[in-house]
Amino acid sequence: MRVALVAEDYYPQLGGVPEHVHNLALQLNRWGHPTTVVTSHMGPYADAEFVQRVGTSRVIYANGGVSRVTTGWRLVRRLAALFRAGRYDIVHVHGGLAPTLGLAAPFAAWQAGIPVVATFHSWFARSIGCRVFRRPLQRILDRHAATIAVSEPVVEANSRYFDAVWDIIPNGVDTSFFRPNGRLPTDALTDHPRLLFLGRIEPRNGLGTLLDAMPRILARYPKAVLTVAGDGPWRHYYERRARPLGTSVRFAGQVFADRPAYYGSADLYLCPTTIASFGVTLLEAMACGTPMIVSDNAGFRSVIDGGAEAELVPKDDPVMWADTTLALLADPERRAAMGQAGRAKAAGFAWPNVARAELAVYERVLEGNTRAAARPATEPRYVREPMKTSVIASTSR
User: Who's near 36: CB < 8 A, 6+ residues apart?
Assistant: First the structure.
């Protein structure tokens, strides 16, 4: 089976979608299914051999953060030519119905006679675009051979506007790369507490809440250090906000290959993100055995699901964040139990499990196409049912 994974967001930009697409490509290629990542140019970057780029990526600001769109002449025609040349059996779009590749790639695949699978990664409270363009987008969605969501909240968000049959397949984590580094829960009391924020530095990721919580934490643990691992267009703004805290806040810049070291050396991973559809960094921290305090939002709730690996805290309450942090720093036994629970849960999200579920969808689509090709012309066509959720990989349960 030959697969093209199309993604608006991909390396060198970091985030949940690039991680999902890259690791899915790695796993499928390991299993002997030639897989190509199709994305757009984002400047000089040493790509893996299975990456092809078409068009130019542009950054736009939306929803409290940054997004990307692809520009270029004759994108649909160029994508169709690429898909034909690659002789792909499946085109899998990540970012269904999203501009630009989420719309251009399906039309290009249909021109090439290739079925389209789309994964929806985003949660939103409401969408003006979906409301205004609901009918034409529904017609496009109806032509997809399968629709996937990374979580129940994503299904709920999209089903406000669209009817579809949903497969739920979560994000995954590389448990051979993300793993503990030997730091013990009691080290926070003998050395100095190490707190970690890891993610893009933008308003929706809530770094300001942690900066406001730090004075209360420092009153109890004067040697505590918050490491901010990540980068983004708002970095200088938050650096200015952190200056009164001195060396208690350290900006490490963008991290990539050394992410396990950051997670593993932290006593607590703090994730105050306000808007989330899932939470890939939660899986990474869990795989490293790092206890977590995370925002109580729809996406994170779907991952934690009442588990013992994290404490859910209101997203914009610095006092609550500080008090929860202080309570956990003083309780190494509970942090150790949280770390063990996290590692156990992360094992269910290992990439072979997730990729196997994706592959099952591809096989179902191709089998359906084969049956359709053999069906008599007078036989009724299949009509999609509205809003029936099928959990393909229920690893969050």
Answer: 3, 4, 5, 25, 50, 51, 52, 86, 88
